[in-house]
Amino acid sequence: MAGRKNGTLADEGNAPSARQKLLAAGIDLFTTRGYSATSVREIVERAGLTKPALYYHFGSKDGIYLAILQEIERTFAATLADVDTLHGTLREKVERLFLMLFDLFEQNLSAVRFLTAVFWGPPGGAPRYDLETTHRRLVLFVQQLVADSVPDGAMTPAAAHDSALALIGIFSLTVDLEMAHPEWGVGREGLIRLLGLLFEGLDQTSFKENIS
Amino acid sequence: MAGRKNGTLADEGNAPSARQKLLAAGIDLFTTRGYSATSVREIVERAGLTKPALYYHFGSKDGIYLAILQEIERTFAATLADVDTLHGTLREKVERLFLMLFDLFEQNLSAVRFLTAVFWGPPGGAPRYDLETTHRRLVLFVQQLVADSVPDGAMTPAAAHDSALALIGIFSLTVDLEMAHPEWGVGREGLIRLLGLLFEGLDQTSFKENIS
DNA sequence: GTCTATACAATGATAGAC
DNA sequence: GTCTATCATTGTATAGAC
Predict the structure, then answer these.
(1) pLDDT for A210
(2) pTM beyond 0.85, yes or no
(3) Cβ contacts (< 8 Å) between B150 and chain A: which residues?
(4) Residue A12: helix, strand or coil by DSSP?
């Protein structure tokens, strides 16, 4: 990974190759129009090339689409590989992990939006691509984080599972908000505040079971 | 609303009209293939009709797509109109509201999946349709619920906002799970458990700030 | 209201020259 | 590796009969 400026999907510096120009045009169009509504003609036009160039490098429309998804996942995976060192209380570890992810996602919002659209999009409208595995890996990682942070017997596996889900729910919401309504976004500070709410409990935070 | 069996998007009983058959075929195909990847030919074939029938009833491909979205939103809005009566503690009110929404969504999972795909889908791939307003309305409703349930001064508006977001985050996660991985879904009971976690706080629930 | 038949543009993909 | 030129197919939409 030496010399590789990672953390963003920005171009590789230097004069972009035809392949890179096609990828850039593709990610742009697939993000804004989706797979089916994007034509090969549009991609090559934006890249300043012609159709045979695309078919030479990627073989098909499916080909460039899948290549783009792999490229995005590769970038995220590279950054996530550095997350191994987390210490402190569970709360400290969770905060650090989620802040890292939040920053990573915020710096690549359009890529995250793309993956989200693929994840929730209709199954038959585009070539199948497995995002479940990565997603599942993240869930299991948080679950393990919780399980490892409590002494044996203090928490059932089911309780650790629930806690991990609640944490992920809070995190997902802050990212979703940043994607769907950047103007309502709560930012890093908001993420920390919401996590605090979960750790301390709504009942304990500012009021005690008041009746309306 | 007399005689109207609401709560689901099932057909209206009796022999379905051409219009209803087209709508049913459309929602099915738009859900599984998406807007752009679905052709008018496919829709009319599945409905057992021909193209001019569709153009007679809906004017265009955009037309039937928008008619479907309106139909779905109308069904949800009709059910949500009954939510005005909530009493008890904040926790009781939130639980009742979210359980109602959870049941409603679970009974119409494919419709919810459709709306989700539209919401997160690429903006240029299909006709624009405003889901933000409904979404915003729900957020404001929960926010108001929180604000109304604490005595004046016990909680700043900002704190009420944060609490509402945390609650919505938990709820959204349970619905997302049900949609994306029904086999991991936590169900109604899981929703209640996760809300309990948020109200009581992770720290209080089963462990006290343990260090790993 | 629903059909048959068709207009006409756009699509994904390729052959073959350079 | 990248081009010009072209293929067969499919797309949305409509005219006109019944």
Answers:
(1) 42
(2) yes
(3) 206-207, 210, 212
(4) coil
